[in-house]
Known about the structure:
The complex is a heterodimer of chains A (304) and B (291). With 304 residues, chain A is an all-alpha fold. Chain A has helices at 9-49, 67-74, 76-107, 114-120, 123-126, 129-139, 146-153, 168-193, 197-205, 210-238, 242-247, 259-269, 273-303; strands at 51-52, 62-63. In chain A, strands 1-2 form a two-stranded antiparallel sheet. In chain A, 39% of the residues are buried. Chain B is an all-alpha fold. Helices cover 76% and strands 0% of the residues of chain B. Chain B has helices at 2-19, 23-51, 55-58, 72-80, 83-114, 120-130, 135-148, 155-179, 184-191, 196-207, 209-225, 228-233, 241-247, 256-285. In chain B, helix 8 packs antiparallel against helix 11 and helix 11 (209-225) packs antiparallel against helix 14.
Amino acid sequence: MELQRVATGTVAVEWQRRERWIILLLLGPSLLYLLAMSVYPTVYSLWLSVHNYTIYRPDMVSFAGFDNFAELLDKEVFAQSFLVTILFSLFSVTLEFGLGLALAVLLDRKMAGIGLLRTLLIVPVLISPVGMGLTFRYILAPTYGLLTYLLQSVGIPTADWMASTTWALPAVILVDVWQWTPFVTLILLSGMQSVSVEVVEAAELDGLTEWQKLWHIVMPLIRPVAMVVLLIRLIDSIRVFDMIFVLTRGGPGTSTEVLSIYSYVTGFTEGDMGSAAALAWVTVAFVNILVFFFLRALARTEGS
Amino acid sequence: MTAVNDAKVALDVSASRPASPPRLWLRLGHAAAAGIVLLWLFPVYWVVLTSFKPIVEINSAIPSFVFEPTLENYRDLFAKFEFSGVLLNSIVVTVATCVVVVAMGVMAAYALARMKVPGEKHIALWILSLRFLPPIAVAIPFYIQWQDLNLLDTYPGLILVYVAFNLPFAIWLLRGFLADVPVELEEAALLDGLSRLQILWRVVVPVILPGLASTSIFVFVFTWNEYLMALMLTSMHAVTVPVTISKFVMPYTILWGDLSAAVVIQLVPMLAVVFLLQRHIVRGMTLGAVK
């Protein structure tokens, strides 16, 4: 790694001095920029969270202490939003992982055209969540939606899915699963492909069935990759905004109002930036706690 | 060489005979794999189809698969909704973000990967942790601050934010690519009397061009698709494609034809990218955890 050993003596001293300047030149701009763009908004948002601040009267700011947080805990909407976020995350990530794994196993084979199938699978990942959400809004629409038509033609009763407090949450979960299952599949597949042919062949010689091979040979080997993809999906599903916002705007009522949408509505629709910032901080804390436990559980199982 | 090949063939034959599942199952597996992938792509197919449908067909209760295709929706999009301006906004913001992020990213990543940076590990982890900050947490401060600085609804206003959002990921990814480059190359260049910066520019950058390309793709896709910040920070002049798409949902009607056409236009440049560089994409999706 070190180029330094090439240089010697006084040259080395001169070299080290120059190296320090070059590090500053190369790394400095990025570090300063990231510090400014993350620390400043973070601190500002912390400051906001303990103040009363409305966008309609930015000149009237007053210190609120922990009122914004206390009010949150009092509100039923907040508890509801928290619950919706957890339900959304839990079901989306579980389904994405389960289906993604099944699909990866199915695609981890030699056959003509398999490369093309894998390439095609990237398309749902690339389409914007806004585009994906609205495409589904069309497919699920009550009068002219394709799914409604198909279900009705085989005699299954349909509903105005997005306007139903029962169906809206399952519907947005469906869309999330549709968009991100291929993502999980592609990553697990790449993990499976790094499992060496020799290991699999040895297992076959030992007479292991397909299931035993998957469970005892492939799964342990792709575990690190599986953990990375789970972590990414978990965090991203808690931050979800775009797709749900274009599908339901959090409605009907608050039945799909996840934390980020609740925070947006509080800040930009109601204009209460202080409460919105407090809410955003609760989300950040929640993500951090989850990631912490996830990583700890990971470290523990890896230790054993 | 032939001996090795023969051994491999022998191994293949002996391995596949005892454990290979019956042919019927294998066929079913193939069919299922193809079927599920095609089913998964159906919504994309449907939106492409819709974008070429006349309005009568779009709002008909019986969805049609066969119809006379029309470019009416696309024409509408550009004629009535000034989509070319929106497209230009998205292109300018995305390209500028890509260029700045990759330039800053490769410099920072090189220092982290190759030079003796004090606290290197902590810096790298801190940079990675920024990837997981919920955008909503920083969105409000940016909105208020940009208002004061007159940056709302401008290109720089968006680009500044997007660079901050993408730089951590880019540095992390490029650092991984740089770690794969054999250091002997640089040692040789150093002995030839090239300076650090000359080495970076003339030796390292040409070698990691694929890495630069795939990093740009990720920055491109993220910026091109980004919605939340664009929604908050723009209103008229700097509106991007995703925001415009969402505006086709109106209080009493949804303009499905124009909306579908816009979704398709948004998808096209990314499809081109995928088919060119699909091999590098998986690595980027996991922040370099998968090679």
